[in-house]
Amino acid sequence: MRQWVPEFYRTIRRYLKLYRVFLSQNLKEDMIYRSNFITLVVMDIGFVSISVILFKIIYSHVNTIAGWTFHQSVILIGSVGIIREMAYLTFRRGFLELGSHIRTGTFDIFMVRPIAPNIHLAFRHISLSESLGESIMGIILVGYGISHLDQWSWINVFLYILFLLNSLMIYYGFSLLINSVVFWVIKTQELNTILYFFMETSRYPGDVFRGIGKVIFTFIIPIGIIATVPASILIGRIGWHFAMISLIIGISFLTAGLLVWKKSIEHYSSASG
Amino acid sequence: MEADVPHFPYDMKKYITLFHINWQNTLQYRFSLVIYIAGYSLYIWVLLYLWSAVYREGQTVGNYTLSQLTTYYLLQLIINSVIFSYISWDVIDNIKNGNFSNFLIKPLDYFFYWFTVNLSGKILEALFVMMAVGLISIVFWGYFAFPERFITLIYFLISVILGIVLAFELDFCVGMITFWLTQVRTFKYMLQTLILFFAGAMLPLDLFPDILIRISDVLPFKYLVFFPASLYLGKIDNPWPSFAALLVWILIFYGLARILLIRGIKRYEAVGA
């Protein structure tokens, strides 16, 4: 135990340092194509606006969706944007490139570097711009949503951020699980389509699920909690027990994801084989 | 020179060959199609819970019943893959990387070349998607509305076939923009979202506020999604005026595609010289 703690601390510090190096490198690359950077941001803002308009239209016909008002739903949409940007700032781009790495055999590089393959894959192409517009909109929407709440507190905001990190953990674990398939079925580049639908459908409140759907969309395909739990905490409409369960789910997904990924990577045989 | 090249209806044979070749190419992508269908099924499943929650609270959305609303989105799965054309990605590549030059000397009509490629892909996708929709509608039995009259199905089929043509022409025109605009991909993303929005792909158009309905009425996009879906749901009594309007749009966009192609070639030659 005494050995393990400083070891763990050193590893974390090393990865944080690596992250800084990769981030600054990627930011420089982003800045080279400045017009592209701006277009991406503007485009994202457009996309999020359309989501908000769609929700506005739905709410012109109904008062609440599973108890959620329009302003509360806006917080949900915003949260999805923020989680997406957090994912792009950590791991998302790597998975989008994984398929072609496996197909062409360039994944070899990741196997021989003195850094865990999943970390290297994640940090190699950190992208600030990919979802920046969405997260800017996200923060605005969450702020707008909060301003229409009857009551809120800074403690809730703090817990909200904490549970956003938990959601990021769930998202990462889930991505690892889905993308592990690529080592077994080489042709699959479209697995990330599923992750796209995964995040798109997270915009709807998890409270809509009932019965078997509740179980599946909480524990197996965690659409019902990834954005709903942080947003519910901010709004103050969630009990402690469910928040705790979602933390356990987060840890479980991360653990399961890492284990399956590790097992799958052993199955990798370069392209020339 | 031009007179030696026989045009479309007179030289069907090479287009039939082309159809066959591309058919085989498309077969290779069946896995990605399966993934897409899986992702979309997930989406429909979540929406089913969403709308159920709304209706359980005693609210209704426009003049839709729960099963009509679910059916609307299930029809989307058919429409998205069968009607919508995605060949402009290839057209953009083709023009950007200069392969377009080869077409200038081939005895193939550029418009009909892509039309054939698109069509052969669509027919194969249609088979897959029909099977999937059949399967999903069995799973969601009771939430899927079947047309009361047989003639409705015929109308639906006509609207799908005409929709394929119009969608292709629209997509081809978008591809033609490559001749003028280098950032065409970004432009295409934005345009695509607007088209989907005003086609009724995200939400049935008759739920929109008046002003947006009026805008969508003067645009051709509603014929891609909202019109065929409404036909299927039996919401249109006399479809013939709409069919006529659809044909007019098809002619207009055929003309536009031709003009853009002729002008584009002139511009392309000017750049290449």
Index terms:
heterodimer; A: 273 residues; mainly alpha; 75% helix; 0% strand; globular; B: 273 residues; 11 helices; disordered N terminus
Concise overview:
The complex is a heterodimer of chains A (273) and B (273). Chain A is mainly α and 273 residues long. Chain A contains 13 helices and no strands.
What do you see in this structure?
The complex is a heterodimer of chains A (273) and B (273). With 273 residues, chain A is an all-alpha fold. Chain A has one domain. In chain A, 75% of the residues lie in helices and 0% in strands. Chain A contains 13 helices and no strands. Chain A has helices spanning 4-32, 34-61, 70-88, 92-104, 108-112, 117-124, 132-147, 154-180, 191-201, 211-220, 223-226, 228-235, 240-265. In chain A, helix 3 packs across helix 12, helix 4 (92-104) packs across helix 6 (117-124) and helix 8 (154-180) packs antiparallel against helix 9 (191-201). The longest helix of chain A is centred in the first third of the chain and has 29 residues, at 4-32. Chain A is globular. Chain A starts with a helix and ends in an 8-residue tail after the last helix. The model of chain A has no long low-confidence stretch (mean pLDDT 90). By secondary structure, chain B is mainly α. Chain B has one domain. Helix content of chain B is 72%, strand content 0%. Chain B is built from eleven helices and no strands. Residues 1-6 of chain B have low confidence and may be disordered. The chains are: A mainly alpha (273), B mainly alpha (273). At the A-B interface, helix 2 and helix 9 of A face helix 2 and helix 8 of B.
Give the arrangement of secondary structure elements.
The complex is a heterodimer of chains A (about 270) and B (about 270).
Chain A: H1 4-32, H2 34-61, H3 70-88, H4 92-104, H5 108-112, H6 117-124, H7 132-147, H8 154-180, H9 191-201, H10 211-220, H11 223-226, H12 228-235, H13 240-265
Chain B: H1 12-27, H2 30-56, H3 66-82, H4 88-96, H5 100-105, H6 110-139, H7 150-176, H8 184-199, H9 210-218, H10 226-232, H11 240-272
